[in-house]
Structure formats: structure tokens, C-alpha cells
UniProtKB/TrEMBL annotation:
InterPro entries: AAA+_ATPase, Chromosome_initiator_DnaA, Chromosome_initiator_DnaA-like, Chromosome_initiator_DnaA_CS, DnaA_C, DnaA_dom, DnaA_N_dom, DnaA_N_sf
SUPFAM superfamilies listed in its UniProt record: P-loop containing nucleoside triphosphate hydrolases (SSF52540), TrpR-like (SSF48295)
Any one Gene Ontology molecular-function term assigned to this protein's record: lipid binding
Protein name, entry field: Chromosomal replication initiator protein DnaA
GO biological process: one example: DNA replication initiation
GO cellular component labels: cytoplasm; plasma membrane
HAMAP family: DnaA_bact
Organism: Lichenifustis flavocetrariae
Domain Chromosomal replication initiator DnaA C-terminal positions: 393-462
Residue spans of biased composition, Basic and acidic residues class: 120-132
Gene3D superfamilies reported in the protein's UniProt record: 1.10.1750.10, 1.10.8.60, 3.30.300.180, P-loop containing nucleotide triphosphate hydrolases
Residues reported to bind ATP: G190, G192, K193, T194
Family indicated by similarity: Belongs to the DnaA family.
Domain AAA+ ATPase: 179-304
Length: 485
């Protein structure tokens, strides 16, 4: 059987299983199950934890075998194995190996103007992204990526303030009164800091002003190299002679003498009315490795955060990426339903959205047919797992705990006091307190109208048991992960 058919069979088997056991149980126990191989009638399936492996083996082997063999008739036995958390799943991902970085394909191959870029794919992804493109400026700054402009930066509620501030900086003219310097932009990974900083650098350069964009790493490297070559004074003068200094990833700035130099440069530029723009993955007050005076100087201008991308913005980013991908692969079609699905499923950041479109493109080529929501789901399944913890519902906690302990949700809500029901009920109450913002009285109400003191007693009891019973502690950890995934 070809890999494409095997993938399809596996996806269908998962769908059957979901229909068979229901969404809550499927999500709890099977969402992380992956097909590794089929050899001599044995389908090898992997899971990430021993607990899941044991649970599936002791409760679901028959049902699992029946759905798998119904879709993949060559399978007569199953083997559940443990996979390492770092290894990439073998199927279906192996089929698109080497193409997971979206920029290495669509975004690299063509810009909206059709321009082609060359890039060294052997360099680590992080550096490749920051240093992609070829327009190194004459001042020894980090190279700018020509694709990262204001034109390609999509604006939504989460990044509007940062975008407006950056554009103001970019549009200012020498001699204008500075509104804020430094402009400090912070955000979690992949939310567009580098994009915005490089867009600013492009726009400033186009206006004829002198701009330098440096990663903190490059700043450190440049300073140390100039010290070695005894050209430190020239290095400082060069930096202080520019109109706009842009430093990315300032959280990586290390070393006392480097920080002192950095602080001098900041002071010299800001005091002289020049613009400084900084980005980091946290606010200045949390830059623990930086000296206090550097932190306070960084906090002295305008500090804005890019917040997680909302669904509408994610959808627009996916649409834009698909449009670029279509320049490379004209037959590549993604239906609005699939775009909406990707935007809903990938909640983490722009980089993961890039990765998802890249996956879809590779899978579409492989399968030679347009994606359905189901095939898209299978193609990007492992990317979805890296998303932020979701809001947990008390009802989901009750369902999961009940299914784990082989009792019904009605038992948990009932007034039954047998040990087989009391313990799951207390665990579910404990998890409700730990994973939701609900108050004790609210939790009590949601557990069959119990008093808040009953909930408090349950929470304390499970906390105490956890310190004595390692197995219970491990089980609770797993529940938490399953519920938040
Ligand atoms: N608003 C946006 N519009 C268009 N593309 C975006 C937007 N936000 C993020 N992206 C894209 O998401 C990817 C990651 O963005 P970027 O590299 O700028 O993130 P970052 O915040 O600098 O991440 P890191 O902290 O890892 O350096 C890039 O391909 C970028 O173009």
C-alpha cells in the first residue's frame, strides 16, 4: 500500500474511533496517538507517555484494532510504543521532510513582486530567519529580509499599537521632535517583532536616513571583534553617527563590558535626539540578566506589547501565505473552510502558521488532490499540539476523570458516597480549582449543588495525597496536560 493510502486509512481509522468513543474520550486518550509503521501485519502506534501507553493497552486495544483493521485490512495486530518527546512523528510527516520551514519554500521562492531569493538552508532556522535575504547594509548591520516590510505586515487588534508606533518612527524626518526613544516592542516568540523591526529599517533606509538593524548577538559580536582589532572607537563612532538604531532580541545581550557599551551607545543616541528601536521577548522590567540602569533606560521611552494574534488576524495571515504559495505552486488551492480551520487550530504564532501552510502545500502535492478539513487536520496535527493551553471547562474535567475511572459523569454529580465514586469526584474538584478560574462555591454548584467547604476539603485532600502518592501526582499531571492541550 502506498504511503498516501496508508495515511488516508489511518486518518479514517481515527475518525471511526472518534465516532465510536466520543470527542472527549478521543481527545483525552487518542489525540496523540501516531502511526509509525505497518510491517508484517503489525501496525506500530506511538504515544508520548508510559501512562497513555498502559491506559490504551489495558482499556482500548480491541476497539483500536477493530477500527484500524477496518480501514487498513493488512493490519492484524497492534503494538503500542513510546516515542521520545523530541522526535518528529514518522507518518505522515516523513512524507514532507525537509519542507517544514515555510520560508524555505513559498516565501523564499517568490515575493509578491516575483523576486527570487537565495538562502543557505544549512544554517539554523532561527538565524536563517533573522538573517534571510541578501541586502546587508554598508554599516555592518545584520542583513535585512526584503520580504519583511510594512506592506506584508498585517495589522489587527493585537499588534496595532506596535505597528502605528513603528510606522511613526519610520516616517519621521531628521530634526523632527522625537515622540519616544527608545521605542521598545515586546512579545512572545513568533508574533512579528522581527518583521516589524525590519519593516521599520526598510522604511527608514528608503527615506534616506541612516539606519542600522542589529540583533543583540551581532551587536555583541561587532563590539568584541572591534575590541580585538583595536577598532572599538571606530565601531562606537559608526554606531553613534546613525539616525535610527534598531536592536532585535535584546534579551540575549550578555556580559558586563558589552552592557556598559550598549548603555553608553543608548545614552549617546537618545540624548542626541536620535531614534532607538528595541525588541525583546519580555518587558524591560523582566530582563533579569541586564543591569538596572540598562533596564531603566530601555523603559524610558514607549513600551508596547504585541499580544497573541486573534483568530481574524491569523486567518488573514494564512490567506496571505496561501496567496504567496500559489505563486510557487499555481495549482495549490485551499478552501475557505480549510483556511478557517488552520486559523482556528494554530493559535500559537505566525511562525507556526507559516509552517502549517507549508505542510498543507507539501501534502497537497503528495496526494495530488485538494485538502478537506480532515486531511488538513491530519497534515498539521503535530503543529496543533504546540498551541497555548486552552480554557478548560469543568464539564470536560468531569467527563475525562469519569472515563478514566470507569464511572459515569452522573455518578460524579450524584450524592453516592462509595469510594469508587468519591475519589474521582474529589480529583475532578481539585482539577476544577487548579485549571479554571471558578470560585469554590461555583465549583460546588457545578458538582451537583455541593457546599464550598466540600470542595475545599476535596482540594486539600488531593493535595495531601499527591505529596504521598507519586503515581497519583503523575496521573494528575497527565490529566492537566490532556485537558490543556
Ligand atoms: N502581523 C503579521 N503579519 C504578517 N506576518 C506576520 C505577522 N506577525 C507575524 N508574522 C509572521 O510570522 C513569522 C514570525 O514572525 P517574527 O520572526 O517577526 O517573530 P518574532 O516575534 O521576531 O519571533 P522571535 O521572538 O522568535 O524572534 C514571520 O514569518 C512573520 O512574517
Amino acid at each position: 500500500m502506498t504511503r498516501g493510502l496508508t495515511n488516508e486509512g489511518w486518518t479514517n481509522a481515527c475518525r471511526r474511533l472518534r465516532a465510536n468513543v466520543g470527542d472527549a474520550v478521543f481527545n483525552a486518550w487518542f489525540a496523540r496517538l501516531e502511526l509509525v509503521s505497518i510491517e508484517s501485519g503489525v501496525a506500530s502506534l506511538s504515544v508520548p507517555t508510559t501512562f497513555l501507553k498502559t491506559w490504551i493497552q489495558s482499556h482500548y486495544m480491541d476497539r483500536l484494532l477493530s477500527v484500524v483493521s477496518a480501514e487498513l485490512p493488512e493490519v492484524s495486530r497492534l503494538a503500542i510504543t513510546l516515542r521520545s518527546s523530541t522526535r518528529a512523528p514518522v507518518l505522515p510527516i516523513a512524507a514532507v521532510e525537509g519542507t517544514t520551514d515555510y520560508r524555505a519554500t513559498a516565501f523564499d521562492a517568490a515575493t509578491p513582486s516575483g523576486e527570487t531569493f537565495v538562502q543557505d538552508n544549512r544554517r539554523p532556522a532561527r538565524h536563517r530567519e533573522k538573517d534571510a535575504g541578501t541586502t546587508a547594509d554598508g554599516l555592518g548591520g545584520s542583513p535585512l529580509d526584503r520580504r519583511l516590510t510594512f506592506g506584508t505586515f498585517l495589522v489587527g487588534r493585537s499588534n496595532q499599537l506596535a505597528q502605528v508606533a513603528a510606522e511613526r518612527v519610520a516616517n519621521a524626518r531628521n530634526g523632527d521632535m522625537l515622540l519616544y526613544s527608545p521605542l521598545y516592542i515586546h512579545a512572545a516568540v513568533g508574533l512579528g517583532k522581527t518583521h516589524l523591526l525590519q519593516a521599520t529599517a526598510h522604511a527608514v533606509a528608503e527615506s534616506g536616513r541612516r539606519v542600522i538593524y542589529l540583533t543583540a548577538e551581532k551587536f555583541m559580536y561587532g563590539f568584541v571583534a572591534s575590541l580585538k582589532a583595536q577598532t572599538a572607537i571606530a565601531f562606537k563612532e559608526k554606531l553613534r553617527a546613525i539616525d535610527v538604531l534598531i536592536i532585535d532580541d535584546v534579551q540575549f545581550l550578555q556580559g558586563k563590558s558589552i552592557q556598559t557599551e550598549f548603555c553608553h551607545t543608548l545614552n549617546a543616541l537618545i540624548d542626541d535626539g536620535r531614534q532607538v528601536v528595541i525588541a525583546a521577548d519580555r518587558p524591560p522590567s523582566e530582563l533579569d540578566t541586564l543591569e538596572e540602569r540598562v533596564r531603566s533606560r530601555l523603559a524610558g521611552g514607549l513600551c508596547v506589547e504585541i499580544e497573541p494574534l486573534d483568530e481574524t488576524l491569523r486567518q488573514r495571515i494564512v490567506e496571505a501565505r496561501v496567496a504567496i504559495a500559489q505563486m510557487v505552486q499555481p495549482g495549490f488551492e485551499i478552501s475557505p473552510a480549510v483556511v478557517a480551520y488552520v486559523a482556528r487550530a494554530i493559535t500559537t504564532n505566525g511562525r507556526d502558521l507559516d509552517g502549517a501552510v507549508n505542510r498543507l502545500m507539501a501534502h497537497a502535492t503528495l496526494n495530488a488532490k485538494p485538502h478537506t478539513v480532515e486531511s488538513a487536520e491530519a497534515a498539521i496535527r503535530d503543529l496543533i499540539r504546540t498551541r497555548e493551553p486552552k480554557r478548560v471547562k469543568i464539564e470536560d474535567i468531569q467527563k475525562l476523570v469519569a472515563s478514566h475511572y470507569n464511572v459515569s459523569r452522573a455518578d460524579i454529580l450524584s450524592s453516592r458516597r462509595t469510594a469508587t465514586v468519591v475519589r474521582p469526584r474529589q480529583i475532578a474538584m481539585y482539577l476544577s480549582k487548579a485549571l479554571t478560574p471558578r470560585s469554590l462555591p461555583e465549583i460546588g454548584r457545578r458538582f451537583g449543588g455541593r457546599d464550598h467547604t466540600t470542595v475545599l476539603h476535596a482540594v486539600r485532600k488531593i493535595e495531601n495525597l499527591c505529596s504521598a502518592e507519586a503515581a497519583l501526582a503523575e496521573e494528575l499531571e497527565l490529566f492537566k496536560r490532556l485537558l490543556q492541550d
